[in-house]
Amino acid sequence: MKHRLLGRSGVRVSELCLGTMTFGEDWGWGASKKESRRIFDAYVSAGGNFIDTAINYTNGTSERYVGEMISSDRDHFVLATKYTLSTHPEDPNRSGNHRKNMARSVEASLKRLGTDYIDLYWLHAWDFTTGIDEVMRAFDDLVRAGKILYAGVSDAPAWIVSSANTLADLRGWSPFAGLQIEYSLIERTPERDLLPMAEHFDLGVLAWSPLGSGVLTGKYKSLADGGAGKGRLTEGSRRLSEKNLEIARAVGETAEKLGSSPSRVAIAWLRQRPGVVIPMIGARTLAQIEDNLAAVGLALPDEDTERLNRVSAIEMGFPMDFLRLDTIRDIIYGTARGQFDFHRGV
Q: What 8-state DSSP symbol labels residue 31?
């Protein structure tokens, strides 16, 4: 596995990140400690060094398992964890983006992980109640205290992230180095604003749910497979639609043509996107992680990439589709439009 720079930071991370939300069976599903270890070892054997967890994953079991697994060579790994989500539902201050929850959470994670620093500390989801200045100053304080090395942001609007990094730059605080988003062949809406924003600020992008909650693996053949109305709704159910099944069929046909698997094709498509896009792979079994890791060796031919792009295409919406109209470009640039290079254009 090759390594990439995480955004404008200098830290080197592997081109696939191991997501560990499946480590532990506390939520009624997931991998046992033994199977989690096998998944971890397979990832490391493939050259991976980037591990992602969160304070609330499997009620803290994920952090404990990860801490134990990296303990023999802690400094080799780029360790990421997150705060924000509620850990005590009855306590209003044990959730959210504010400084109190951040300070409490980082200490709890450090203890559970058995380490004295976290490489990348994520804000897990924007709460719309905490000021951007409070968040960024609190992150900077943790960096200056040596408790974290970099800050990142997950599941937040582009205007929040851009405001935060602009403020951090102006005040000499630590900016966000990474952006974590849902991104896959069936969730391309980040291309409207989040991904252009990430490119502008040189943020490393981690794509969670690269398999579209399982839809892109080919496990669903029809809308009925999601269990709607049968009392067995799954996470993949919210992603089931005729359009997404059409995309999944195209992925499956591409996989058959290339002698690969649908999962590898979906992950390979993400790896070949412009900019620094790092798929986050997670698994409940060794076989699943081995299949996902094999995507590193798969290069999609141009014609297959173009077909997948077409079948999964989205409308960019206003203002992008409007500004790309030739009539509008003529109004903006006049007859000189063909006389200069549009390398920063749309």
A: B
